[in-house]
């Protein structure tokens, strides 16, 4: 009997899981927060390439989610998750062209339906989409690499709001462990390479990281279930990122999560499956 | 097979199709590129109507630019902070009817060069004997550019030297020498600028001078008291040098009036250009800023009004390094070309081609960026660019030079650059926080762009095919008909590299006309005069410029390509004084010398 589901084959609609998920109230917290970030960033500093491009990313994301959800799960999927994916793509992708926004959103959402194991998609959608675009369309796509005016106050406000939001969603430990690990590794890198420690810390003060630590690494659907496991995984993300940074990979955090996140999911699925099999009564011959 | 299973198969195929899309797009554009690369001169002439041949050595030009060496505190990132200064400007300083070249050098003790055109295909450096070579002496800073304008209307073009240091004004003594008149003119003691232009903003017939600061003017880059000299932000910096507008009072004196006329900015200016964008008779001012948005100042003749956001050019912050105007659609309206940074997979700002929106004009003028639609968006780490009809087919083409720092080909600084560029202002603003360069390149060894205008809204890069094959760190581009042949040659100044002279050979069947204007009531250089050429049912407008591109000044003479068998209608000249002069059916394939009618 095969216990492994093909990566491209969808299982039946997943049963209700006991993973920590957004409550009815909380479901709108993350979309509301990311919308605030978007509006504050754009109205104050014009962080977006254009409204149209961000809108294209959001519409593509939600539209595809609705269509695929209808086809494969026979229901209208709540658009909150797709909205976050679309808006993340709209903020993080930087390209003078329109098509990368639509394509990145489409790849992100479709990956949720294609790359599934035991009923769970294993990559954070926007992390998958953006990493793929950076790999495959480097001549057209980069990601957000600038500050919002590079001033301290907006950064502190976003960190404070983000922390409160993520704490309400009971995932602050993920963000906390990651930030602590990043900072520790930044000093380690500085010591190893001789670069000023400020330059090693610098990336995490930017908005790209704000989206990364509040929305990507904390995604309930693509993180392991146990709190201890989440802490371990996010620490490993920081470790892999550290290694990539030592090799001067510009988009180290995306690639680290791209590698570590699904690996952790697969390990957890395998362990759960093994546990379930062991729990089954053996049939006497 | 169940319906659900079929749907899954289609979904998988759809997903594979999505992943394959970038490959397909890349293959298509790579195929187009291959078609246009590597051609011999004969093929280029047949296919594109021209080819370029680099002949600086044969022309006796041996100039090699040297970068400055600044305060040792900046040593770790010296290649970056000392990455500008190479420039070229065109002037006929002795009024012999043959354009000469002035090029700047930027190491302390290095010498600038004035290449006199000897009419036989060669040049001779006469800067030393005329007194404008040894201008980079210790304690005075170094040259970063030069613009020529006849500020006293004596018929000879005078020289304003742009510097990181003490700016200089040299009076041209009838082509026989230059006299330094900086103090008499009332110029400030120190400006760290990369751009300046001559313009007559108030139409009084005397040329005024705009200077755009880059580093703050209280910084002596050779004697730093602090390393906090860097931009406070990669895209929102407002801690750069101030701007200056020197109003020409006559008798060789200038008065600084920028603040009282509405120019208040501390963005990091890298390029400026002026042209009458609204048909008011007054030159409007465009400033391309590094680390931020561009600025556009509408000029009502008495005051400037910053309208960057209102017109659309001043919203999305990039790394502006060039400002050039061109009527690329032959509609009698200028587009503005601003160069920025594009590096695959790291930073894709894209260059801007600001095209006036349909049905907008006057004070309601608005622009949209159509660089991508026109095909002039991606040019690497772009610097100087100029519009000009390189094949005389009747439409303006675009020459772009690029490349930032070419050191070790195999090691890149981009990772460290991107790390700090995204950092908080307290980090990015202090040079000591920037990792050391250690001989690495940053967008170095880049291929140039020669974009041919097809006249129908598309530009095609033919640089490799027509012979523009250098990969130096290009900064400044100037276009000029060096030997009065009716073709535009290209001169490129490279940072830490040789001055390149691309001689142009154009298919002879295409016709042309050139105008040399001299003001009488207007300023004698005729800067700000517009010529609109009408032929074969189309029109093209060009304006005499007192500096454009990046640290560059084109030939004062206006060059129009006319294509094959043109039906010439008229040329309409609008002088800065407001006078309008119409020349019916001017003779083509010759230089028309026009003096402003009394």
Overall number of strands of chain B:
40
| Envelope shape of chain B | globular
Give the topology string of chain A: H per helix, E per strand.
HHHEHEEHEHHHHHH
Quick one: biggest sheet of chain A? 2 strands, antiparallel
Helix content of chain A: 55-70%
Radius of gyration of chain B: 24 Å
Mean pLDDT of chain B: 95
Total of DSSP H or I helical runs spanning 4+ residues of chain A = 11
Low-confidence stretches of chain A: 1-24
How many DSSP-defined strands of chain A? 4
Work out the oligomeric state of the chains in this entry: heterodimer
Overall SS class of chain A? mainly alpha
**Helix segment count of chain B?**
10
Strand proportion of chain B, as a percent range, falls in 35-45%
Low-confidence stretches of chain B: none
List the helices and strands and how they pair.
The complex is a heterodimer of chains A (285) and B (598).
Chain A: H1 29-45, H2 51-73, H3 80-92, E1 93-94, H4 99-114, E2 116-117, E3 120-121, H5 125-136, E4 142-143, H6 152-168, H7 172-193, H8 197-201, H9 207-216, H10 227-246, H11 252-279
Antiparallel strand pairs in A: 1-4, 2-3
Helix pairs in contact in A: 1-3, 1-6, 2-3, 2-4, 3-4, 3-5, 4-5, 5-11, 7-10, 10-11
Chain B: H1 3-36, H2 41-48, E1 50-54, H3 78-81, E2 88-91, E3 100-103, E4 113-117, E5 123-125, H4 127-130, E6 141-149, E7 158-165, E8 168-172, E9 178-180, H5 182-185, E10 191-199, E11 208-215, E12 243-250, E13 253-256, E14 268-275, E15 284-290, E16 295-299, E17 304-306, H6 308-311, E18 324-326, E19 335-338, E20 342-343, E21 347-348, E22 352-356, E23 367-369, H7 371-374, E24 382-388, E25 397-402, E26 408-412, H8 414-421, H9 425-428, E27 440-441, E28 449-453, E29 459-461, H10 463-466, E30 474-480, E31 489-494, E32 500-506, E33 511-518, E34 530-535, E35 538-543, E36 552-553, E37 558-563, E38 568-574, E39 580-584, E40 591-595
Parallel strand pairs in B: 2-36, 26-27, 33-40
Antiparallel strand pairs in B: 1-32, 2-3, 3-4, 4-5, 6-7, 7-8, 7-10, 8-9, 10-11, 11-12, 12-13, 14-15, 15-16, 16-17, 18-19, 19-22, 20-21, 22-23, 24-25, 25-28, 28-29, 30-31, 31-32, 33-37, 34-35, 34-38, 38-39
């Amino acid at each position: 009997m095969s216990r492994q589901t093909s990566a491209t084959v969808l299982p039946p609609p997943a049963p209700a899981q006991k993973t920590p998920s957004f409550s009815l109230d909380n479901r709108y917290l993350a979309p509301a927060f990311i919308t605030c970030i978007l509006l504050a960033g754009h109205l104050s500093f014009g962080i977006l390439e254009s409204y149209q491009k961000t809108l294209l990313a959001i519409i593509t994301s939600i539209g595809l989610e609705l269509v695929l959800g209808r086809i494969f799960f026979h229901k209208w999927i709540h658009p909150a998750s797709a909205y976050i994916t679309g808006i993340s793509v709209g903020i993080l992708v930087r390209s003078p062209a329109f098509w990368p926004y639509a394509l990145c959103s489409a790849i992100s959402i479709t990956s949720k339906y294609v790359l599934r194991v035991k009923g769970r998609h294993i990559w954070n959608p926007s992390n998958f989409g953006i990493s793929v675009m950076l790999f495959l369309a480097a001549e057209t796509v980069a990601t957000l690499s600038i500050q919002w005016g590079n001033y301290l106050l907006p950064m502190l406000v976003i960190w404070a709001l983000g922390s409160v939001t993520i704490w309400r969603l009971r995932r602050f430990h993920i963000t906390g462990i990651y930030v602590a690990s990043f900072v520790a590794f930044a000093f380690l890198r500085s010591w190893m390479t001789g670069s000023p420690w400020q330059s090693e810390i610098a990336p995490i003060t930017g908005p790209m990281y704000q989206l990364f630590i509040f929305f990507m690494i904390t995604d309930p659907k693509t993180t392991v279930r146990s709190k201890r496991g989440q802490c371990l995984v996010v620490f490993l993300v920081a470790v892999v990122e550290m290694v990539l940074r030592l090799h001067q990979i510009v988009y180290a955090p995306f690639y680290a999560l791209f590698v570590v996140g699904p690996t952790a999911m697969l390990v957890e699925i395998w362990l759960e499956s093994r546990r379930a099999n062991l729990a089954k009564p053996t049939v006497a011959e | 097979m169940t319906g659900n299973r079929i749907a899954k198969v289609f979904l998988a195929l759809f997903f594979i199709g999505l992943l394959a899309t970038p490959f397909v797009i890349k293959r298509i554009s790579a195929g187009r590129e291959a078609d246009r690369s590597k051609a011999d001169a004969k093929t280029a002439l047949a296919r594109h109507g021209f080819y370029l041949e680099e002949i600086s050595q044969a022309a006796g030009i041996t100039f090699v630019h040297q970068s400055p060496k600044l305060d040792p505190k900046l040593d770790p990132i010296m290649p970056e902070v000392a990455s500008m200064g190479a420039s070229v400007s065109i002037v006929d300083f002795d009024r012999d009817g043959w354009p000469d070249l002035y090029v700047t050098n930027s190491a302390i003790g290095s010498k600038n060069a004035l290449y006199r055109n000897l009419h036989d295909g060669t040049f001779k450096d006469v800067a030393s004997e005329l007194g404008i070579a040894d201008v980079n002496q210790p304690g005075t800073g170094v040259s970063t550019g030069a613009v020529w304008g006849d500020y006293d209307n004596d018929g000879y073009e005078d020289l304003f030297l742009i510097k990181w240091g003490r700016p200089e004004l040299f009076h041209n003594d009838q082509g026989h020498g230059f006299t330094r008149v900086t103090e008499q003119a009332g110029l400030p003691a120190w400006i760290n600028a990369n751009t300046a232009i001559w313009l007559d903003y108030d139409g009084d017939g005397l040329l005024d001078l705009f200077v755009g600061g880059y580093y703050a003017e209280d910084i002596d880059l050779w004697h730093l008291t602090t390393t906090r000299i860097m931009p406070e932000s990669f895209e929102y910096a407002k801690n750069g040098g101030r701007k200056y507008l020197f109003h020409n009072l006559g008798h060789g004196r200038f008065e600084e009036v920028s603040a009282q006329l509405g120019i208040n900015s501390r963005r990091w200016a890298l390029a400026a250009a002026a042209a009458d964008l609204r048909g008011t008779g007054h030159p409007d001012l465009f400033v391309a800023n590094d680390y931020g948005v561009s600025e556009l100042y509408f000029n009502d003749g008495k005051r400037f009004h910053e309208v960057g956001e209102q017109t659309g050019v001043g919203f999305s912050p990039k790394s502006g390094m060039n400002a050039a105007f061109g009527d690329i659609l032959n509609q009698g309206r200028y587009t503005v070309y601003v160069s920025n940074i594009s590096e695959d997979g790291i930073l894709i700002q894209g260059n801007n081609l600001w095209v006036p929106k349909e049905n907008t004009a006057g004070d309601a003028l608005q622009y949209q960026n159509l660089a991508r639609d026109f095909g002039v968006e991606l040019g690497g780490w772009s610097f100087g660019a100029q519009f000009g009809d390189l094949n005389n087919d009747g439409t303006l083409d675009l020459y772009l030079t690029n490349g930032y720092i070419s050191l070790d080909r195999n090691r890149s600084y981009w990772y460290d650059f991107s790390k700090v560029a995204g950092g908080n202002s307290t980090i990015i603003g202090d040079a000591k926080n920037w990792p050391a360069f250690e001989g690495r390149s940053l967008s170095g060894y880049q291929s140039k762009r020669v974009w041919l205008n097809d006249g129908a809204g598309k530009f095609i890069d033919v640089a490799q095919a027509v012979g523009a094959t250098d990969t130096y760190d290009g900064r400044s581009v100037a276009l000029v008909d060096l030997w009065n042949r009716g073709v535009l040659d290209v001169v490129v100044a490279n940072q830490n590299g040789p001055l390149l002279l691309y001689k142009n050979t154009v298919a002879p069947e295409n016709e042309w006309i050139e105008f040399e204007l001299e003001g009488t009531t207007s300023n004698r250089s005729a800067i700000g005069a517009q010529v609109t050429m009408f032929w074969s049912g189309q029109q093209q407008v060009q304006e005499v410029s007192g500096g454009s591109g990046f640290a560059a000044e084109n030939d004062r003479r206006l060059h129009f390509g006319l294509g094959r068998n043109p039906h010439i209608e008229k040329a309409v000249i609008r002088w800065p004084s407001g006078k309008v002069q119409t020349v019916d059916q001017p003779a083509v394939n010759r230089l028309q010398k026009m003096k402003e009618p009394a």
